[in-house]
Design brief:
Blueprint: H1 6-33, H2 38-47, H3 65-78, H4 80-99, H5 102-114, E1 119-122, E2 138-141, E3 147-157, E4 164-170, E5 182-187, E6 193-198, E7 209-219, H6 232-268, E8 270-271, E9 274-275, H7 280-308, H8 314-339, H9 350-362, H10 367-381
Parallel strand pairs: 1-4
Antiparallel strand pairs: 2-3, 3-7, 4-5, 6-7, 8-9
Length: 386
Amino acid sequence: MANLSAAEQAVVDTVRSFTDREVRPVARELEHANTYPEELVEQLKELGVFGLAIPESYGGTPVSMPCFAQVTEELARGWMTMAGTMGSHTVVATLLRRFGTEQQRQRYLPRMATGEIRAAMALTEPDGGSDLQALTTNARSLPEGGYLVDGAKMWITNARRSGLIALLCKTDPAAEPRHAGISLLLVEHGPGLAVSRDLPKLGYKGVETCELAFTGYRAPAEALLGGEEGKGFAQMMSALETGRLQVAARAVGVAQAALDDALDYAQQRESFGKPIWKHQSIGNYLAEMATKTTAARQLVRHAAERLESGQRCDMEAGMAKLFASETALQVAFDAMRVHGANGYSTEYDLERYFRDAPLMIIGEGTNEIQRNVIAAQLVGRGGLDY
């Protein structure tokens, strides 16, 4: 485990207790009803979870990245949706902290810290996928100042309930290279912005994932993150290191939940006169699941420690996201095998883990993209640092 201060360990312990006491008992019911967890989110506000990436000077209760990763893991262990309610929120807070003007920080961060405003980020487009440089949402400068925004985004988590959206768009469509014409606008709901529909999903229920349509949306000049055009792509890539760590930590939480359930079940369920864990095939599953989950957790914490120390960690975050997400899917599947027919039943939580796990393979850059990033970094750095 990462060496946390006593105060940070208390934060993790508090979230763990909250997860076991409040989240796990109701997660299955809320998941099957696809109900947004209003009461649980209110409790997250009281715990200060929405302010974990926000400086004290703006009302936050900041923690280190290793602590944040463990908090995310604990929330996802209870119900992955709980981690989703604060995932993109934290990335936007990171964007504001690193790149925002003082006016932008003062406008948003204090209310984000309390959870009064929760943030979303709008990157993906219907035809763009992982190629963010190919986006077509345009923000045209107006003679009187500000921008006129037109375009569409999809797969936007927290879209309906967000008070702030970090919108990646083109302010100079003719720029070369393409990323030089990309900017980030801090937009709020209003005329010209429509949440067109909620997208149906295999898993990750409860929290909404939507399409957004911008049609003649007017954003003021002060909505430009940092006040300078053409910086949006680099700003977002920097903040997505935090996003990928958050997704990796979610995956560890799902894997841990599946392992815990499988371990309990294997000790209670008997066949041929003994608990099934004593059958070698089941024992082997448990051993592999525990080993892979532990390795995934250590990769996440290694990347979190690098990011906290200010070192470059795009490769490390990519490795953590790649391995942890693949582990979550495998562990969920193996836990289903341990449960046998019961693992296929909606009366058990295993089917939820199995539906939730694939999201981490796709989200915050597909694992195919992560492999490309890792390979490029290996060549660029001349191999692994060790």
